[in-house]
Amino acid sequence: MDLDPEGIFRDDSDEDDDNLHEREANKEMVVYLIDASPKMFTPANAAKADEKQETHFHTIVNCITQSLKTQIIGRSRDEVAICFFNTKEKKNLQELAGVYVYNVTEREQLDRPDARLIKEFSCVEDSFMNNIGSRYGITSGSRENTLYNALWVAQALLRKGSVKTVSKRILIFTNEDDPFGGITGAAKADMIRTTIQRAKDAKDLGLSIELLPLSRPDEDFNMSLFYAELIGLEGDEVLQYVPSAGEKLEDMTDQLRKRMMKKRKVKTLSFAITNDVCIEVNTYALIRPTAPGTITWLDSISNLPLKTERSFICNDTGALLQAPQERFQLYNDKAVKFSVRELSDVKRVSSLHLGFKPLDCLKDYHNLSPSTFIYPSDEQIFGSTRVFVALHSSMLRLGRFALAFYGTPTRPRLVALVAQEEVISSSGQDEPPGMHMIYLPYSDDVRYPEEVHLTSGDAPRATDEQIKKASNLLKRIDLKHFSVCRFANPGLQKHYGILEALALGEDEMPDIKDETLPDEEGMARPGVVKAIEEFKAAVFGENYDQEEAEAAAAKGGASKKRKAIADAASQKSAAYDWADLADNGKLKDMTVMDLKTYLTAHGLPVSGKKDAIISRILTHLGK
């Protein structure tokens, strides 16, 4: 019996006879291959009088610079290398012509990006022609193949690390869709064959090759001439791969960031179905709140991260002890000893058994935090996918969800496992098959607030006209295709912007745009303004604005009157030497009205009898 006839739980890279799933990579190594031929330095768009001309080379440098800045924040463990091909100078371990591996001092060629690399690479265009140079690498009458050399160098750079734990990728940036167009005959066929074979050899070693094509103003990038076969595209994939003709060059930065943001597994778990049946699943975080990075303590001299260590020292001898193997608890003036295992057994409050309940028992308010997506894996426990598919299909058919304990037996968390069916549309897979792990609340997390039951006469009711105007207003200000992912956290953007400016030694702090602020331009549209005014008139009445203006004017008149009284009191109070009067005891000879001028001039309370007023003045004078 085939439990997965459609193969929906198989990885795309699996062959029919391959029973093992590739290990999900938790680290990424990327080599940027940048075409440096003279065509990359031509204008990237049509000439306009009011627009500055930019080259494809300039666009790619900015694109990679922004990607490296994002990578330091989100994926600091990933490693990158930057490599130019079709250059005059050569700099690579293989001493191959036309290939220049760009790097900075005190950094390996394939390493984590740092502030110095980003800062110097962002300015590489200024000195590129003098230090590195540009040329056509593949020309007629020459057997030199710079694209072949670049793939060889990139493959050598990605030699370290296992493909089981590291995702290795090569990204090619070029606006030349036919790199062998300048040669003909057997030499061209031989170069194409050897270059494609070099790409296939790299793929056989677990390397992924991707292309970011750049269209020139006079013609679109034609993938079918060469690069479709190089990266392994067939049929409709060729047309879908090329960006649309109306796409702006500025979108390249977002496109690259999207390519770099890959879903990665959080951890691998053992899923105990029964006491005797245990399968392996991978967990994926679909959406999580982003917070600033944790504080790292550095040594004040070397500026290196500090490592925290804990040691046990004997009170009697001062000798260094190992971690205590026994704990004790004082009971009835006696020390009751416990071993670590006994304490673990005492704390064990759950058994890892699975239960099922109908889906209508799971309420919306039970989902207090973002869920985790789980997917089967045959990496360590063979047959996990078959068992998972059987459980998944049964839960969908019977309309049940599973109740399970997640975590350690000493600190369990009750979770609900809800099966999700695969959803496929004309554009591809919209939702994958698997299960969502929902973290259920504890009993004290669920609140039962008191309900106030009002009679129809007590509670105000909106009229049909008010409801109609409110509905019209909501339709006017509704955000089409709203998604929380379209708005950046302004606090985090400012935090990382300041860190970036400090790391790169920039003089000015970045100007962060707060996308959560109201759209004043959109709210000022005539249709929106009319809907707001109609809603205000329906709820507050036609004369609401006039009444509000009169109230504001009255409030302003009262404040002006108070200010005039305070100014008059200050002038009258300035005629007396209050410190001298207080020292000579003459305050009691003054009238209450004169004493109150001092209090009014200094903003003090004027209430109370004469003795209270004099005491208040003396306190204010510090007497």
From TrEMBL:
Lineage top rank: taxon: Eukaryota
Compartment(s) where it occurs, according to its Swiss-Prot or TrEMBL record: Nucleus
Entries under InterPro entries matching the protein: DNA_bd_Ku70/Ku80, Ku70, Ku70_bridge/pillars_dom_sf, KU70_core_dom, Ku_C, Ku_N, SAP_dom, SAP_dom_sf
UniProt xrefs under Pfam families: Ku (PF02735), Ku_C (PF03730), Ku_N (PF03731), SAP (PF02037)
GO biological process: DNA recombination; double-strand break repair via nonhomologous end joining; telomere maintenance
Stored CDD domains: KU70, vWA_ku
Catalyses which reaction(s): ATP + H2O = ADP + phosphate + H(+)
Keywords: ATP-binding, DNA damage, DNA recombination, DNA repair, DNA-binding, Helicase, Hydrolase, Nucleotide-binding, Nucleus
EC number: 3.6.4.12
Main location: nucleus
NCBIfam families documented for this protein: ku70
The name this protein goes by in its record: ATP-dependent DNA helicase 2 subunit KU70
Organism this protein belongs to: Hordeum vulgare subsp. vulgare (Domesticated barley)
Source lineage: Eukaryota, Viridiplantae, Streptophyta, Embryophyta, Tracheophyta
